[in-house]
Amino acid sequence: LSPDEDGICSGRYFSESGLVGLLEQAAELFSTGGLYETVNEVYKIVIPILEAHRDFRKLTLTHSKLQKAFDSIINKGQKRMFGTYFRVGFYGSKFGDLDEQEFVYKEPAITKLPEISHRLEGFYGQCFGEDAVEVIKDSAPVDKRKLDPNKAYIQITFVEPYFDEYEMKDRVTYFEKNFNLCRFMYTTPFTMDGRPRGELSEQYKRNTILTTMHAFPYIKTRINVIQKEEFILTPIEVAIEDMRKKTQELTAATNQEPPDAKMLQMVLQGSVGATVNQGPLEVAQVFLAEIPADPKLYRHHNKLRLCFKEFIMR
Question: What is the rounded CA–CA span in Å between residue 309 and residue 289?
Answer without folding.
Answer: 15
